[in-house]
Design a protein that fits this description.
Elements: E1 2-7, E2 21-23, E3 47-54, E4 58-63, E5 72-79, H1 86-90, E6 93-98, E7 136-140, E8 148-156, E9 165-174, H2 202-206, H3 249-253, E10 318-328, E11 333-342, E12 349-355, E13 360-365, E14 367-372, E15 378-383, E16 395-403, E17 413-420
Parallel strand pairs: 3-9
Antiparallel strand pairs: 1-3, 2-4, 4-7, 5-6, 5-8, 8-9, 10-11, 11-16, 12-15, 12-17, 13-16, 14-15
């Protein structure tokens, strides 16, 4: 990969705030520049930077967290000159990936984290499709593009922002074969396991879009990420840029190798030895990765973190169970109200709630806590003296108020169980 620098003119003036693409270098590499909500690209700086790549290369693409978490990033690629029209990018999407969030315990709340938010450093790159929450990805340079200059677009509405932010980089692509048959229909692929943004849903990223007619194999269509473990041409690029973007610069400087970034205008790490893909994640490495729900459990590859409670028919003692839940995401609070109609007499009962993420129930009425698992995802309650002995036709009202760590995702009840206690 080579970078060609020439003098350029200012193109479009945008509004400044929040996140932007930092790998490869964007049209404006000022470290204090802010983001752009006008689009489809930011204004260009005084120097024009073009990243040179070949067809079939993998390219590291990263962005600064700017203390934000949650949402997606849409990446699209068009010929230079077509980049001033939004619709051109919409019809040439490469893929949609996670914006990112700090997956370390207690590090993300209310759509924010402390920059760099555990973003991946230079000399490392995303080499597993389930490890997509560290503010970067890699893309495959299509094989079927005519030699020339192209514009790569980043578009994201991170955290709770209600508008999209845009950033672009110029790529000079060589070695393509335009005669390849690369007709595609449908939308571009979406990454697994992203933490949703708090304001703009995924559907808005996909609106009016289609995947571009790109070939990712030397002889035809192929898969964008089939060779994700291949080292990109720019592994040294460090998308974290600088600790001057952090709300806690002292804590930021303690993060892995942040102090080694010496030029925020061209943030890099010096790679010692050959750059290699990270080790394949396992279900026993003590790290929450590989799409896991919790450390070393859940997700697409590992065993479930807990056994789902069941409700055997011969133990069910109700004829109707009304269950209403309310989540106050901004306040990190959850409320449940349940009304149960008894069909079978019983001298004791249990009510179990199974959640998809931890909730700590702090107040409950007409019942008492019996137990909960270590993850705070399965809670079992029993009766108070005045609700213990139940008869057919009797109605019981139960209520629960709880708190959860707001990481941008709403907890929800997976299932519940009201059965006779043995």
């Amino acid at each position: 990969m080579k970078l060609c620098v020439v003098i350029a003119v200012v193109l479009v003036v945008g509004c400044q705030a929040h996140s932007w693409m930092s790998c490869p270098p964007s049209l404006d590499t000022r470290p204090n520049r802010g983001g752009n909500t006008v689009g489809p690209c930011e204004r260009e700086g005084k120097t024009k930077i073009v990243t040179e790549v070949n067809a079939g290369d993998r390219l590291k693409v990263g962005w600064t967290s700017n203390n934000h978490a949650g949402g997606w990033v849409r990446l699209a690629l068009v010929p230079d000159g077509q980049h001033k029209v939004y619709e051109h990018f919409e019809k040439n999407v490469l893929k949609i990936v996670c914006y990112g969030h700090d997956e370390r315990k207690g590090r993300t709340a209310y759509g924010d984290c402390v920059h760099p938010c555990n973003a991946r450093k230079g000399c490392e790159f995303m080499s597993n499709k389930y490890d997509g929450n560290r503010y970067d990805t890699t893309i495959k340079i299509p094989y079927n593009l005519k030699d020339g200059v192209y514009v790569l677009q980043y578009m994201s509405a991170m955290s709770g922002h209600k508008t999209f932010y845009y950033s672009c980089a110029r790529l000079k692509i060589s070695g393509g074969k335009p005669s390849l048959p690369c007709k595609r229909t449908g939308k571009a692929p979406v990454a697994y396991g992203c933490m949703a943004g708090m304001a703009i849903p995924l559907s808005k990223y996909e609106k009016n879009t289609k995947m571009g007619n790109f070939c990712f194999a030397p002889n035809g269509l192929g898969d964008q990420d089939a060779d994700m473990r291949k080292v990109p041409v720019n592994p040294e690029c460090d998308p974290r840029i600088t600790c001057q973007l952090s709300v806690n610069s002292k804590a930021c400087m303690k993060e892995d190798s942040m102090s080694k970034i010496t030029n925020a205008w061209d943030p890099k790490q010096t790679c010692s030895g050959a750059v290699r893909p990270g080790p394949e994640p396992t279900c026993s490495d003590g790290i929450k990765n590989n799409g896991e729900q919790m450390v070393d459990c859940g997700g697409p590859e590992c065993d479930a973190c807990y056994e789902e409670p069941t409700e055997p028919e011969d133990m069910r003692i109700y004829s109707d169970l009304v269950y209403n839940e309310k989540v106050l995401l901004e306040r990190g609070m959850m409320e449940v109200r349940s009304k149960i109609t008894i069909r079978k007499e019983a001298s004791n009962w249990t009510f179990t709630i199974f959640l998809d993420k931890p909730v700590k129930w702090t107040h409950f009425w007409n019942c008492k806590l019996i137990s909960h698992n270590e993850y705070n995802t399965i809670w079992t309650f029993g009766p108070m003296p005045w609700t213990k002995h139940v008869k057919p036709g009797q109605k019981i009202s139960l209520g629960f108020n709880g708190k959860f760590e707001n990481d941008g995702e709403r907890p929800q009840t997976v299932t519940k169980s009201f059965v006779e206690a043995t």
